[in-house]
Amino acid sequence: MVLSQATSALVCALFALWAFKKLVDLLGSGARQAPYPPGPKPRPIIGNMLDFPTEEASRTYTEWGRQFNSPILHVESLGNHVVILNKREDADELLEQRAKLYSDRPTVPIFKLFGWEYNIALMPYGEEWRQHRRVCQQNFNPQAAKQYETIQMEKTRQLLRGLLDAPKEFEAHSKLFSIGLAMSMMYGYEVKSIDDPVIAVAEEGNILAARLIVPGGSLINIFPFLRHIPPWVPGLPSRRKAMTVRQLNDEMMRIPTDFVKKSLAEGTAVSSLVTDFYEKKYAVGASQEEEDIIRNVAYTVYGAASDTTISSSGTFFYQMVTNPEIQKKAQAELDRVVGLRRLPTLEDRGSLPYIEAIYREMLRMRPPVPLSVPHRSSEDDHYKGYLIPKGATIFPNIWAMTHDEEVYPDPFTFKPERFFDAEGNLNNDDRILAYGFGRRVCVGKYVASGSMWLMIASVLACFSIKKAQDEEGNEIEINHDYHEFGLMRYVQATLVFSQSFLTFMTRPFRIEVASSNSNVQPVFDLLPSRS
Ligand code: HEM
Q1: For 421-448, what is the HEC assignment?
Q2: Which residues are recorded as binding heme (predicted)?
Q3: pLDDT score of 406 more than 70
Q4: In order of start, what are the domains of the chain with their CATH numbers?
Q5: Which atom of ligand 1 has the smallest separation from the CA of 372?
């Protein structure tokens, strides 16, 4: 009975929405001269609802660009307009030059139920976002990012030690490295294993949330009023699941914050964003608003930094195993510049152009957030003869831009050489599109860049990454599939790695060099032992 009522409510609401939209279109058509950008033809009532791709969306949108012969595309469903930008020039013009109009974020009705309104990346453009962004900029600008170098070194060394001790557990080490970095920087919280409760609650929450966000995942995204239905009312399971996401989300904030307070009380606290804030608060006081902002920044960074770094390190290992000659070239550079007696540091960065090119190419080839985090237009705008309506969701298709053959010939080949000029110097293509655009560009990009670079240089300095062998000594082919999960793109191989499709071989000559000269501190002795 409840279900049939819900169904008829749904049909009525769909019809009302359609009628309302038709009316608005009719009234607006006189004033609206410009057409929307091209795209698949909408169906009656539901518009393009069935056209939205559920996976590999960035590739589908690239294909649509070819099909409709336009780098700007438009799709619409139940009055929600979506504009896709496949070319960098258009993203630059709209999201950077006209940033005032394009810095908002679309509101996804179910996000509030999740408790995601605290996430800076999802906040609407306005004063609240500005205050949070300011704190981020103070803490993650190029100069401030240097304060995290010690943590980045420490976590990288833990990664190396992990790979050395248990080379087949790639996935676990990579995860620990990525999440450990964020947790240390934000809370001084030492993540010892991937079974840590903070990781467990965050993962459970994210997986559950991702299932509710995808098209068709929850009716609440189509009919926002359903979010007011109490979770105990039967017939709307996504409402209950959203409550669970919220509880997990709250736990994710509570556990590390309690840890900071406890360690401050016990005198064992380590410096971090949240620790330093509470130290200051206990000493000289701070407002509730300031406390909320710090809590939200730390919580956002945990999410924003962890998954992107896991995704990028997956890409790195995958590209290295499939391109052994690139590894060798990078290792030759490391041997020449850093030598065999020490590990690379961020101070070596300017002297290791090939490692830099690998970093750029890795994020070009597989941007971790291929469609970026969507922006939203705050006013009607006209561009290249098209109307971009107020409230449209704007997807900069980073993947399409970094696979644009006119800019990156042979885009599906991993080729760090593309970042060198004819004289063999690094070229000036150093803007990493994977970090997004305009006023909402990734505010942690300098920190991320340091972490990723150090990881690449250090792993290649210590290991050669090779395909695993089966019992007969034959190489095991690896799975080349990538997998889009929610907003993110993960290399499927990260799952495969843990099933030992890959193994990490220590470079024999390094160990020989290290042990053959008693005056030389062996490189691996520098690595922390696993406690
Ligand atoms: C490889 C690593 C990373 C990638 C590829 C990445 C990518 C992105 C992208 C695409 C956006 C959205 C940009 C846009 O709207 O145009 C974003 C936003 C954001 N990122 Fe990152 N990110 C990474 C690491 C980090 C790290 C390490 C931090 C923090 C230290 C961080 C903090 C943030 C925050 C707070 C936002 C929201 C910005 C806003 O909406 O104003 N990210 N990131």
Answers
A1: CCCCCECCCCCCHHHCCHHHCCCCHHHH
A2: 442
A3: yes
A4: 104-373+404-526 (1.10.630.10)
A5: 10
Question: What pLDDT, in 10s, does the model give residues 221-231?
Answer: 777 777 787 87
Nearest CA to ligand 1 atom 43: 442
The residue whose two tokens read 């940033």 is 99
Question: How far is CA 149 from each of CA 185, 316, 345, 450, 453, rounded to the nearest angstrom?
Answer: 10, 21, 9, 8, 12
The rounded distance, in Å, linking the Cα atoms of 393 and 407 is 26
**3-state DSSP of 235-274:** CCHHHHHHHHHHHHHHHHHHHHHHHHHHHHHHCCCCCCHH
Q: What is the pLDDT of residue 16?
A: 52
Pocket test for ligand 1, best of 174, 442, 452 (most atoms within 8 A of CB): 442
Name the residue of 435, 446, 451, 487 whose CB sits within 8 Å of the most ligand 1 atoms, as the mutation to test its pocket: 435
For ligand 1, the distance from its centroid to the CA atom of residue 435, given in whole angstroms, is 6
**Cα–Cα distance for residue pair 64/54, rounded to 1 Å:** 15
Could you tell me which residues are annotated as the binding site? 442
Token reading at 454:
């150090």
